[in-house]
């Protein structure tokens, strides 16, 4: 694997890590919603000679920079036949509705965009092959409160490597 192909994702991950390190203190000082961790599962359809369907599982973390804008990392694992994918992105999420008194509304629509890396692992004639490239996703969804600290939601995104993704998630604010 070429060194150049690792430098850009490493810089992105480093930048996201630095931002994450400083956000919890800033978020508490501004009276914004609490940080959240979300666990997701769903379906992805890749464009090929038709649609290639694959299951996905993953997770993300979000820290609020303002009452309606949050940022954080997301990791997704895609499971396919004789291959798999892994995506790591830094996301920015915009809540369409403002929180009330620092608490999310009962239902909050949102838009999300992210950039990072996309890795594919395949086996050809019993020999492994791995490729890593840049990635992005963009889309939106809705999250609903299911308790004081728990949210449930669904989102859909389009991304590169060209795919359509639909997933549900469970979130916990801490």
Structure description:
The structure is a single chain. The chain is 15% helix and 64% strand. It is built from one helix and eight strands. It has a single domain, classed as Porin (Beta Barrel). Strand 6 (127-145) and strand 7 form a beta hairpin.
How would you describe this structure in keywords?
174 residues; mainly beta; Porin; eight-stranded antiparallel beta barrel; 64% strand
In a few lines, what is going on in this structure?
With 174 residues, the protein is mainly beta. The chain has one helix at residues 4-29, and strands at 36-48, 50-64, 69-80, 83-95, 107-124, 127-145, 150-160, 163-173.
Task: Indicate the proportion of strand residues.
Answer: over 45%
Principal-axis shape equals elongated
Number of separate strands: 8
Which residues form runs of ≥5 with pLDDT under 50? 25-29
- Radius of gyration (Å): 17 Å
Give the arrangement of secondary structure elements.
Elements: H1 4-29, E1 36-48, E2 50-64, E3 69-80, E4 83-95, E5 107-124, E6 127-145, E7 150-160, E8 163-173
């Amino acid at each position: 694997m070429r060194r150049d192909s690792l430098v850009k994702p490493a810089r992105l991950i480093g930048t996201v890590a630095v931002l994450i390190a400083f956000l919890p203190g800033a978020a508490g000082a501004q009276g914004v919603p609490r940080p959240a961790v979300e666990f997701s599962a769903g379906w992805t359809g890749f464009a090929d000679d038709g649609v290639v369907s694959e299951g996905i599982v993953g997770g993300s973390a979000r820290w609020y920079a303002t009452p309606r804008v949050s940022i954080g990392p997301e990791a997704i694992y895609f499971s396919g036949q004789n291959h798999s994918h892994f995506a790591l992105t830094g996301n920015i999420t915009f809540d369409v509705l403002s929180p009330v008194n620092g608490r999310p509304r009962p239902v909050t629509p949102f838009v999300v965009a992210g950039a990072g890396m996309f890795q594919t692992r395949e086996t050809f004639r019993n020999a492994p092959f791995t490729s890593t490239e840049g990635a992005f996703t963009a889309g939106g969804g809705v999250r609903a409160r299911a308790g004081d600290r728990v949210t449930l939601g669904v989102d859909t995104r389009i991304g590169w490597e060209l795919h359509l993704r639909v997933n549900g998630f469970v979130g916990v604010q801490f």
